[in-house]
Amino acid sequence: MVASAEPAATLATLGLQASAGQTAALLGFLDLLQRWNATYNLTAVRERDAMLRQHLADCLAVVPAVARQLPQGRVLDVGSGGGLPGVVLAIMLPTLDVTCVDAVGKKAAFVRQAAGTLALPQLHGVHARVEALKAPPFDLITSRAFASLADFVGLTRHHLRPGGVWMAMKGKHPDDELAALPADIEVFHVEHLQVPGLNAERCLVWMRQRAAG
Asked: In the chain, where do the E strands start and end?
């Protein structure tokens, strides 16, 4: 499939149901990302079609998995950049409360702008290093192209509530990173994804704290 410049075909290919309001919000997010990117360099991807394939479709592909794992609760998107995947999760899964944290102020400001413009009161943009973030614990912590798996869990484990899970968006199956995880971290699922319009390997690595004993 070759993705169009609009998300409808991508949603259909992924089997995602979206209201008119959600579809409009996805379009609005693409518009905002393209407009802000011209000034603030949020992403190296410039063209709208490429943004849809490489960013929006990539993040939409994880929505069914997140919905299965967490019907409602608090999500932390670490190193969120231009709100990927946090803004997409907030649009598609409105029962989730999503905090996007980034060490770059203009990227956190963009997420706050998106929350206001797209009327997403459960979406929050925070300018901070994740290790210094002050927030109640989260049910799900996610990242996309943020760090190695070991660094990801090491920097964020104090933010994960007991029984919570990590979800790392990766490209190819990260064998070396999996082998480098601390002994007390359990990988309970590696989920391979097919992203519409993107001829590249994608997977989700699901992790949790290993039960004592």
From this structure: 73-78, 96-102, 123-127, 138-144, 160-170, 185-193, 202-209
Q: State the sign of the Cα–Cα–Cα–Cα dihedral 44, 47, 49, 51.
A: positive
Q: Show the domains of the chain with their CATH numbers.
A: 8-209 (3.40.50.150)
Tokens of 121: 């009161």
Q: 3-state class of 138 per DSSP? A: strand
Nearest to 50 by CA among 63, 64, 65, 37: 37
Measure the CA–CA gap between 24 and 6, rounded to whole angstroms: 10
Q: Encoding tokens for residue 152?
A: 């990801």
- The four Cα atoms 176, 182, 186, 190 give a dihedral, to 10 degrees, of -20
Residue 47, SS3 per DSSP = coil
Half-sphere CA count of 140, side-chain side, radius 13 A: 26
CA distance 167 to 92: 17
Tell me which of 16-20, 33-37, 91-95, 176-180 is least confident: 33-37
Which residues lie across from 208 on neighbouring strands? 186
Span 56-92, pLDDT tens digits: 999 999 999 999 999 999 999 999 989 999 999 999 9
User: Dihedral sign, CA of 67, 69, 74, 80?
Assistant: negative
Q: What is the pTM of this model?
A: 0.94
Phi, psi of 67 (to 5 degrees): -60, -40
